[in-house]
């Protein structure tokens, strides 16, 4: 029996693996921090034998409330990822599984590999409407890649979309892939109308170092990028520094920062009502965006989400608040579940990569609903 995580985004520590019925594992913290929750590993063992894999010591994980009701994902071919029987008791997560093939992969959510990231941005640049720009290097010397979609011209809105500040939230890049795919579809009417009056600036992966290292929440040196937007630095958070420099250069009229939430089994958005400059215009834009998204897809809801900040109490070190305040623009954090969408449950796949991609496509409908009123 072999258990390994020595591959892109892999993360697991083997405590005991001699008996298929008594496998004990633990999750390694992000380098330089105490955050841990993301796991991704391969089991190679005897087919058609029941295996009990126990991931231990989760009381100090980043989000203990994320484990109850959670079902792990597994794949034989690393293409189709399905939910497997999972239970949580006494701070341990137990996966009960009978493999049908020699090896099987398990993960916290469907992984989005750095290789797929490279394929994605390379394919996108081949569209007539897309340009791939380099805005800087990460601490591990990976590219910070920006997709510019649409023809830049005076008077056009600049709409920014960023994803995966928290690298373990791989659903964010799956969403962006769907959004960009539709935006570059020359036969799609919504995309064509949007590109007449808007330019999209898309960073599919804000944290490629953490993604490759198998981190949940931080970059190569343990920095939570979504707390760095007030004072980013080259030594701790160059990813945010270079993004803000690009935003200052090109301008921002709307911003969506894409994330995943460990505990809440819903898709929702978090706005900037706590910002000092929040006003009736921004509130009306937020409302119009949400109303359009509710009509566009039943995957979205506006009942469950984060508590709203009191006026003037917003944390402007967080991306959506920082950008919304800096550029006086509509700015949202978009959250998706690690679990399933309880409003539309799917026992076999849960909230999945294909559903993320479709949600990304649907976001364009809501963006179009507000784009004419952004300024």
UniProtKB/TrEMBL annotation:
Cofactor(s) required for function per UniProt = Zn(2+)
| One GO-annotated biological process of the protein | proteolysis
Q: What organism is recorded for this protein?
A: Glaciecola nitratireducens (strain JCM 12485 / KCTC 12276 / FR1064)
Q: Which GO terms describe its molecular function?
A: metallocarboxypeptidase activity; zinc ion binding
Arranged from A to Z, the UniProt key words for this protein are: Carboxypeptidase, Hydrolase, Protease
Protein name in UniProt = Putative carboxypeptidase, Zn dependent
> Active site located where?
335
Q: Which residues form the Peptidase M14 domain?
A: 110-374
Lineage of the native species?
Answer: Bacteria, Pseudomonadati, Pseudomonadota, Gammaproteobacteria, Alteromonadales
Q: What is the similarity comment for this entry?
A: Belongs to the peptidase M14 family.
